[in-house]
Amino acid sequence: MKAFASLLERLAFTPSRNAKLQLVRHYLERTPDPDRGWALAAMTGDLQLRTVTPSMLRGLAAERLDEKLLALSYDFVGDLAETIALVWPDGAEDDPSLSQAVDLLRTTGKVALPAAISAMLDRLGPSERLAFLKLATGNLRVGFSARMARMALAGMGGPSVPDLEELWHGLSPPYVPLFDWIAGGARPENAARAPFRPVMLATPTDLEELRALSPDDFYAEWKWDGIRVQAVSDEGIRRLYSRTGEDISEAFPDVIDAMDFDGTADGELLVRRDGEIAPFGELQKRLNRKSVGKGLLASHPAGLRLYDLLIWLGRDLRSEPLHQRRAVLDAADFGDARIDVSSLLKFATWDDLAKLRADPPATVIEGVMIKRRDSAYVSGRPRGPWFKWKRDPMVVDAVLIYAQRGHGKRSGFHSDFTFGLWDGPELVPVGKAYFGFTDAELRELDKFVRANTTERYGPVRALAPKLVVEVAFEGLNRSSRHRSGVAMRFPRISRIRWDKPAAEADHLATLEALL
Amino acid sequence: MRADSILFPTESGLYCPEGGFHIDPLRPVERALITHGHSDHARSGHGAVMATRETLDIMRLRMGPDFAASTQIADGPTRIGGVTVSFHPAGHVLGSAQIAVTPDRGPKIVVSGDYCRAPNPTCLPFEPVPCDVFVTEATFGLPVFRFPEPLTQAAKLLASMAEFPDRQHLIGAYALGKAQHVISLVREAGYAAPIAIHGALKTLCDYYIGQGVDLGELIPATADEVPAQLVIAPPSAFASLWVQRFRDPVIGFASGWMAVRARARQRGVELPLIISDHVDWPSLTATLTELAPSEVWVTHGTEDGVIRWCELAQTPARPLRLVGYEDEAE
Ligand SMILES: [Zn+2]
Ligand SMILES: [Zn+2]
């Protein structure tokens, strides 16, 4: 840890790029594995560690130093990690290795973390404490990029910068095979396989922008609330990358197992059970893991929903139009239920799409993706070929005041609701909603309607003002046809608030303020 | 007699009416006792000046022979008016002393001036003097200041010189005390090659050598090509034309302030060396514990930190709020 700490300190004060490269190269030449690999990854920001929050650090420091002295010190130094490194009482310095420190930050659980950090600080001298705390707060700031890392490595006399670039994405810290190669060992062939390709990103849009475009030129599909990934399977080497090129394969062995194809696919990583997509929170449990237990693999099975192919069976499809790539994708057989293809939405007009978007079939859909049928797959975020039209509903809490029987499948139930907002002591109707609830909720609502009818006007029942519903809608217009003076676009019941007293529903003024 | 009527701050500095003298006065006074030769403590134009022999020498070298109307070398306990004064080594720079003021009746006060407890081969070590009131500086009066072993900093400098053998290392160090301290540390760390010094350092380095401090071979850094990898210069030289003769040097600075990164960045240095001639927090608080005075007065620096420490240690403490001491040496 001492060598790493003095390197960081030196880099922090060294403005010259050449001097930095020399310092790092010498450090790499003199430091054993795996420390040097961890150090390199830490400097370039490629090390994923548990992040320690400032408040946790403050708490730890307060256990060792009077709070007023700590405050005076922080005031003077201006950097929390540095302050704590400086004021932390000296312990028995036994110079633990950088690997030990990294290990601690990779594997310690949240609950045990504060005590583990304190214990580590007790083993370090002042500059090592600072290095450790910078590592722990993910804030090294030494101005050393991955590109400079490759230059420093090339300076060690082995492979050149282009050699290194070719397989950089296939390498992961602590880069032991890489250092072997530099020392004259074998080229890590597998690292060159299954490389990450820069992804194509969409720009946000709205109805206004879309109206200027022809719907016929575009495909649309659901935007799933998962994680955008690139799944690469290349001559037996399989990797799953985040959209920034971070290799997340280790956390998803189930998906890697299922990737029995030859190509580079673009898609959404999701947790799915029996065809149902689980909310993002469930996927989160699978993220940032070094390894996954059997229990979690069973309870949170992950899968892919693909929407594009970059390379397939050795053919680079990126310059071909989307409709051709899509045809290849639709024809592909993935042979595993964990992998399927995102289906295209049927729409003739943008209003059709707006309706679909307003009432998606699953809550894990966060909008629609709209892609030009003739778009090539290009890297970056060009404006025009791909759009994301996110669901960003406005919501109000309203009171149900009228109900009417539905049609078709719902004809037996009261499924058409009029809701109102408070205007002084009375409820003013502001809109109608026909959807947004599940079948089970529909039955409950129907029961509520029957039990709380105060009057009947033909098919319409007036209800006792008791039940609050959260109404989501896409927009708001002024309207002379409505008594309230406003009309909602695509209103639907997003939640039934059985818990909320009617008196606490929103007022008309709240809605008007949204105009 | 109460302590604060024996000695108290005035516009001219700490004043002792019983003895009719000021300690380290900020403006010309009739009778001055000087702790050490730094320019914020030792000024010219006083009537009678009493200090250690070395401090008087240094004042003469820096200000010329007429810096005071008369001088007296401090030598053992001396009666001045109604009090007895004595000078004791402070470990800060060559000749630096603490001044003990003992009234016939009443508390004994020790004014430490600037002091340091870390071993320094260029001056006598700090001598703890039992007292009732201890007047401490607080230049580095916060727990963030815990200076490393000075030799580790010399090792850091030598490692950098080995890392960049083709680059000259220009180290900023103040002329009195710090420059000689840095040079002697580098020598102690085993560096034997000639060290170049800026012209402004010559007089005091020669004086130190004359007093028996071994600085090794020093050469002037005045030629267009300075044939030494290590060059010591006062901080002011870095803003002058002089510095332009060096191509791509590594600029360093030796100071206790280098312990804090923001301070080091302000200086724009590439190689911060934490070398101080002042007490750091652990030795300041250890000194207070060791001396266990019944009262602590705090002069220049970060008084708040020291006052808080005294509060926690249940030692009465107060800031003297003297202005005008600018820590020349740091
Ligand atoms: Zn001084
Ligand atoms: Zn001073």
What attributes characterize this protein structure?
heterodimer; A: 515 residues; alpha+beta; DNA ligase i, domain 1; D-amino Acid Aminotransferase, Chain A, domain 1; OB fold (Dihydrolipoamide Acetyltransferase, E2P); 3 domains; seven-stranded mixed β-sheet; seven-stranded antiparallel β-sheet; 21 helices; B: 330 residues; alpha/beta; Metallo-beta-lactamase, Chain A; Rossmann fold; six-stranded mixed β-sheet; 8 helices; 23% helix; 25% strand; binds zinc ion; metal ion binding (chain A); ATP-binding (chain A); nucleotide-binding (chain A); DNA ligase (ATP) (chain A)
The total count of strands of chain B amounts to 19
N→C terminal distance of chain B: 37 Å
Indicate the radius of gyration of chain B in whole angstroms: 20 Å
N/C terminus separation of chain A: 59 Å
Structural class of chain A: alpha+beta
Present as ligands are: zinc ion
CATH classification, class level of the largest domain in chain B:
Alpha Beta
Describe the biggest sheet of chain A?
7 strands, mixed
CATH superfamily of the largest domain in chain B: Ribonuclease Z/Hydroxyacylglutathione hydrolase-like
Fraction of residues of chain B in helices?
10-25%
Low-confidence stretches of chain B: none
- Radius of gyration of chain A (Å): 29 Å
Largest sheet of chain B: 7 strands, mixed
Mean pLDDT, all residues of chain A: 89
CATH architecture of the largest domain in chain B: 4-Layer Sandwich
What oligomeric assembly is this protein in?
Answer: heterodimer
Q: Kindly report the CATH topology of the largest domain in chain B.
A: Metallo-beta-lactamase, Chain A
Catalytic activity (chain A): ATP + (deoxyribonucleotide)n-3'-hydroxyl + 5'-phospho-(deoxyribonucleotide)m = (deoxyribonucleotide)n+m + AMP + diphosphate
GO biological process, one term (chain A): DNA recombination
EC number (chain A): 6.5.1.1
Domain ATP-dependent DNA ligase family profile (chain A): 304-423
